[in-house]
Design a protein that fits this description.
Blueprint (H helix, E strand, L loop, with lengths): L16 H24 L3 H43 L2 H4 L7 H7 L7 H11 L3 H7 L11
């Protein structure tokens, strides 16, 4: 089994080949083809096929977004638990001040650098990208959908 490449800010985004390189292009191409067909052969049937193709494309995108939202909710829960364990009491009181995107970004910080990064994120109101850029010891997440 090949070793996984260590994650960092520049390579942590994940490409899912079956979805990004097959499913999405097939549905996008289908929408385009049905629109072209409607333009060349106007009619109720052609219009309905365009509507159906658009609905199918929307469904595919929503299904993907639902999975990501559920995953983000789980990450939010995991990170709140992790913060409650790793932070000193004064910082622990501020866990609920983090947005979902900040908590999702904090999951990449190592346990050793997490308390300092949390303090900085709170005081400087860091965005999720700023949090990820500030991480020096990356904690990989190879399970992201």
């Amino acid at each position: 089994m090949a070793e996984k490449v260590p994650q960092n800010f520049s390579n942590h985004s994940r490409l899912d080949p079956p979805f990004h390189l097959f499913v999405l292009p097939v549905f996008a191409l289908t929408v385009i083809i049905t629109i072209v067909h409607l333009a060349m052969h106007p009619g109720l049937h052609s219009a309905w096929v365009v509507i159906f193709a658009l609905a199918a494309m929307a469904a595919v995108l929503k299904i993907r977004l639902y999975a990501l939202k559920v995953q983000d909710r789980i990450i939010r829960l995991e990170e709140r638990l992790r913060l409650a364990i790793l932070l000193d009491k004064p910082l622990r009181a501020h866990i609920n001040e983090f947005s979902e995107s900040q908590l999702v970004a904090l999951r990449f910080a190592s346990d050793a650098e997490l308390p300092a990064l949390v303090a900085r994120a709170l005081s400087e109101k860091l965005s999720n990208k700023d949090i990820k850029r500030a991480i020096s010891q990356w904690r990989p997440d190879y399970w992201r959908v």
